[in-house]
Amino acid sequence: MMKRYAVLDIGGGTIKHAVMDEQAETLKSGITKTPVQGMNATFAILKDIVREYQKEYTLNGVAMSVPGAVEIVTGYIHFAGAVTDLMGRNVKEELNDLGLPIELDNDVNCVTLAEKWKGSAMDCDNFVCIAAGTGIGGGIFINGKLYRGRLGMAGEFGLMALRFDNKLETVMQRGSFSALGSTRALVEDASVRMDFAVTGEDIFRLADQGNSDALAALENFYDALAIGTANLIHVLAPEKILIGGGVSAQTVVVKEVRNRIARIRKPALDITEVESCSFKNEAGKVGALYHFLTMQGILS
Questions:
Q1: What is the CATH number of the domain that holds 14?
Q2: pLDDT tens digits, residue range 185-220?
């Protein structure tokens, strides 16, 4: 009998969820708005999603992709980015009354696991995923295993400083990878230049039309993304670096990053292939399911 799992990918804006089988085939899916934080409503919403699926399916477990640093065995979250309701809480205990096995992992680790299981890194033992969104997140595979580091903190690439001066107390706010190379940084830069709010899609469209402000913002964005990627190549020398996040849907991004790495140090591209992630919006769910199946001993 085919087993089915509730899979939830929790983000600051939305919770993407689905019922999937063991091969990550989606049987039913939906999107729920993430509740306003601070009202302690998030766990109630998660339970409602799972129980709604239970009306139609017999579920064999709950797999979750969550922001922040996660203790995967206990289910405790040390910090949770924008979803502050999860911070300092044990998710497995909070959802225990669902009566189902529950496994969870960091959101970018889930993206990385998805690429290893069914994506662009299936044949790689050593690779890195970079997710460019509101910040910069990362996942690291070393010798065929996901590297988590202490407290699950490995892969926080966004905290790397790309620029610095003697005002060290504020370097992270002004010169970190996230502050310079995230999609949020791109949107903020372009909005300031144009003196009105724009989206990422707007920026690429305007750049195609020759808008000088959009082009200048993209130049800064590509430079930061390339410098951060080159740093990771020289630290880890992986077989591949895969760039994901919403911006990776723009095929020009990886091309521009490669071009700039060649200017920084061309031999770096002989060490590491730089590509886009295979999975887009489904990555977190696919990786969360893979994590569940491995933790439960269903996959090795």
A1: 3.30.420.40
A2: 999 999 999 999 999 999 999 999 999 999 999 999
